[in-house]
Amino acid sequence: MEQNPKMAQVTTISLHRLVSEFAGFGADALQKSRNEYDTLRYRVFASTWNVGGVAPQDDLDLEDWLDTKACNCYDIYVLGFQEMVPLNARNVLGPKNSSISSRWNQLIGDALNHTGRRREEEEGARAHHEQKQFRCVTSKQMVGVFLSVWVRSGLRRHVRHLGVSCVGAGVLGRLGNKGAVSLRFLLHGTSFCFVCCHLASGSKDGDVLLRNVDAADILSRTRFRPRRTVVPDEELPTQILDHDRVVLLGDLNYRISMDDAQARLLVSANKWSTLLEKDELLLELGKGRRFEGWSEGLVTFSPTYKYHRNSDKFYWWIDSGGTGVRRRQKQQRAPAWCDRVLWRGKGLKQIRYERCGGYRLSDHRPVRAVFEAVCEVPRAVGSFLEGLYA
């Protein structure tokens, strides 16, 4: 786990910190029917990783990424991938290749449940161990976008009304090389929605508007079909923004809006705080345009893109012939914070936000966040469940 660097406070980041700190639990968020309802708190681990079309090796260890040493602290895992497969014409237009997503799910399950480790022998210990196991409630792939959600086995019975929606926003504004996979469910009586996105790429002037259009398109076009089994008093939200708690994560592809030469100097000096003043996503959040009502934790980690694979060197510069003389790549891609986690909803409080630098499979680095999520349940039920999960 990387150490967060100490950054000088600048105007944009100070404002961002202020928004982040006050965007958790609102004063009036949990006051409803206090005499009738209890609040249960769950830990949600949410992470995004653009894996660059690289299939994982069978022995890839995901335990550090998933923080399995602290696994007992988490109740729900939300894992979003982009470029699960190479984004070529065959994968975009042809039949879905689900073998890669199945391999990732296998590796996730092995890491979360410590498959292969010594099992407890005593019956009581085994029962406790099984209670702590994680189950995949659902996973969905759209070309290269893949969303996989896991919950504790003991919590699975309280997850109801699962729904999945896919929105393509790529070629012709419809194909799935870009877009989002969204999942929603009710946990007790609280609605959650998780959105895994891959927005338009590019660092030219005007490309930020394409990302904004993709985000707006995903939010407006995503629909969850109503279920006939729902009782009249339990209406389910059909759009993303109608849910109580929403987490949006992915390769949002927002770049640094700055002169190339100036950006190069700042990157060489690791002046991340100054670069973040021109971060496109922070500027969009500050303007309240496409992301009005959304929040992001304070970004204190190094850029997540673009690296040489299996290296910590940025793709922007390479050594020429071992001479130590640096030359510019023909394809310039200044480092940026492309991979992000946003949220909205008064019952969410972010308690961690960081980059996972130890995984060099791709030209991106995974980013993870941890939330405390509140669910309201009838008082008698809440007391029983608190005893059950204590």
UniProtKB/TrEMBL annotation:
It comes from Avena sativa. This is Uncharacterized protein. It comes from the Eukaryota.
